[in-house]
From TrEMBL:
<dbReference type="InterPro" id="IPR038050">
    <property type="entry name" value="Neuro_actylchol_rec"/>
</dbReference>
<dbReference type="GO" id="GO:0005886">
    <property type="term" value="C:plasma membrane"/>
</dbReference>
<dbReference type="InterPro" id="IPR018000">
    <property type="entry name" value="Neurotransmitter_ion_chnl_CS"/>
</dbReference>
<feature type="transmembrane region" description="Helical">
    <location>
        <begin position="277"/>
        <end position="294"/>
    </location>
</feature>
<dbReference type="InterPro" id="IPR006202">
    <property type="entry name" value="Neur_chan_lig-bd"/>
</dbReference>
<feature type="domain" description="Neurotransmitter-gated ion-channel ligand-binding">
    <location>
        <begin position="38"/>
        <end position="243"/>
    </location>
</feature>
<keyword id="KW-0812">Transmembrane</keyword>
<keyword id="KW-0406">Ion transport</keyword>
<feature type="compositionally biased region" description="Low complexity">
    <location>
        <begin position="377"/>
        <end position="396"/>
    </location>
</feature>
<keyword id="KW-1133">Transmembrane helix</keyword>
<keyword id="KW-0675">Receptor</keyword>
<dbReference type="InterPro" id="IPR006028">
    <property type="entry name" value="GABAA/Glycine_rcpt"/>
</dbReference>
<dbReference type="InterPro" id="IPR036719">
    <property type="entry name" value="Neuro-gated_channel_TM_sf"/>
</dbReference>
<feature type="signal peptide">
    <location>
        <begin position="1"/>
        <end position="25"/>
    </location>
</feature>
<comment type="similarity">
    <text>Belongs to the ligand-gated ion channel (TC 1.A.9) family.</text>
</comment>
<keyword id="KW-0813">Transport</keyword>
<dbReference type="GO" id="GO:0022824">
    <property type="term" value="F:transmitter-gated monoatomic ion channel activity"/>
</dbReference>
Length: 453
């Protein structure tokens, strides 16, 4: 009984060992199916081709998402499906490998490790990797005509040399270069697929940019000094056009309103000095604060941007309004000084003129002021001189010497009313400032749009 139990145990152990061996054989067959790869297959050697002809690798890309356009680091992140296709004539493709009605078979991604594969890389990528969850998102598809298609979901951070001369209406053209690392042009040629080489997710939307469609592609070659050879290169151009709507609402419209607000000071009288100064200074500080906050959106650059010109224009108009207030205030003080000076001298001169006219009817008060007295009252020349003096203004009689070059007031010949210089400056500023600002806007936007196009 004991001997039979021992024999049964040995038999069970042998069966278990056979099952483990069979299971291992199935696993090896899944990873490296010899039904496809011949015994003499060497994956380090590229597929055979005509003499002097390179192996052709066909590329197609489906862009899923574009995000994190970073102007500080000058890069952007792109999520995409990349498909490579080439012909491997050394494969054995028995009919039993395909299901009925299919001309292809999909194998697990580990199978690609047993095949020769091209070694493309993104030349200007800071980071590139295949997406993973529990395993890599990739697959290998074999076709009856011995074509191999390798597809993978990739993330890449692409460097882009951005220019901001036209900011915030700039257009950034960012190329992505795909190049073989080891095989030069005589060994390997990269080319875009004939049908739909680049596809863009139709639901793709960016916050501040519009993506130009369709994306431009190019096939070229580049000399790499480090490897001393020419390498085949594929170029994909991403075109990002910044949306102006955000800046119209957040920048251009508020700054224009602040400039218009500074014009209200022309209607405020000079007796309200605190209100007028507060309005102008607050307008200037508002513009400075507004434009200081905008500098955080883009890195500091050494050239002048379009937004800088707008900022400078708005500040110049507000500063000019503040300067206009200083000028009219100085003229108003000078006008009041001259007015008070005339008021002091007139009471002293008028009684002398009245007394002179009572003594001699032929003598005028102007003759008394000139010092002629009664001795020259009969002379015709002095009579005509007095008549001419009568037609002159009171202010010119009082200021015969040291007359200033700029008159603070004058009398209108048509209406006979007195006009004050500082009031006239305020009145004309109400139309001159808006006219010049409108001229600035008319020149700014067409030139900017012309340079953008």
């Amino acid at each position: 009984m004991t001997a039979s139990c021992t024999a049964l145990a040995i038999l069970l152990f042998a069966l278990l060992a056979m099952c483990v061996r069979c299971t291992g054989g199935v696993k090896n067959y899944t990873i490296k199916p010899r039904v496809v790869l011949p015994e003499d297959y060497v994956k380090e050697i590229r597929p055979p081709s005509r003499k002097g002809q390179p192996v052709s690798v066909e590329f197609s890309i489906y862009v899923v998402d574009i995000n994190s356009i970073n102007v500080e680091d000058m890069d952007f992140r792109v999520d995409m499906f990349v498909r490579q296709k080439w012909t491997e004539s050394r494969l054995d493709m028995p009919n039993a490998l395909f299901e009925e009605g299919d001309d292809y078979v999909t194998l697990p991604p580990e199978f690609v490790d047993n095949l020769w594969q091209p070694d493309p890389y993104i030349l200007n990528a800071k980071v590139s990797e295949i997406a993973k969850l529990t395993h890599e998102f990739s697959s290998v598809t074999l076709f009856r005509n011995k074509t191999v298609r390798y597809a993978a979901r990739m993330h890449a951070i692409i460097a882009c040399q951005m220019e901001f001369q036209l900011y915030p209406m700039d257009i950034q053209v960012c190329p992505m270069y795909i190049e073989s690392f080891s095989y030069n042009m005589q060994k390997l040629r990269l080319r875009w697929a004939d049908a739909d080489p680049i596809m863009l997710n139709p639901e793709l939307k960016l916050l501040q940019y519009n993506v130009g469609q369709p994306l431009q592609i190019e096939e070229t070659d580049g000399y790499v000094p480090e490897r001393e050879a020419n390498f085949s290169r594929l170029v994909l151009y991403f075109r990002f056009e910044r949306q102006i709507g955000h800046h119209l609402i957040q920048t251009f419209a508020p700054s224009s309103l602040v400039v218009m607000l500074s014009w209200f000071s022309f209607w405020i009288g000079l007796d309200a000095i605190p209100g007028r100064v507060t309005l102008l200074v607050t307008s200037m500080l508002t513009l400075v604060t507004m434009f200081t906050g905008l500098k955080s959106d883009i890195p500091p650059v050494a050239y002048v941007k379009a937004l800088d010109l707008w900022m400078a224009g708005c500040m110049v108009f507000v500063f000019a309004a503040l300067g206009e207030f200083v000028v009219v205030k100085v003229l108003e003080v000078r006008y009041q000084r001259e007015k008070s000076h005339r008021g002091v001298n007139l009471p002293r001169l008028l009684p002398m003129r009245i007394q002179a006219m009572e003594k001699s009817p032929c003598m005028s008060a102007w003759d008394v002021e000139s010092g002629s007295g009664g001795q020259q009252s009969g002379q015709q020349a002095q009579t005509s001189s007095a008549a001419a003096s009568r037609r002159s203004s009171v202010g010119s009689v009082l200021r015969m010497r040291g007359r200033p070059l700029l008159q603070t007031s004058w009398r209108d010949h048509t209406t006979g009313r007195e006009k004050v210089l500082w009031r006239e400056i305020d009145r004309h500023s109400r139309t001159i400032f808006p006219a010049f600002f409108l001229l600035f806007v008319v020149f700014y936007w067409p030139i900017l749009l012309l340079k953008k196009s």
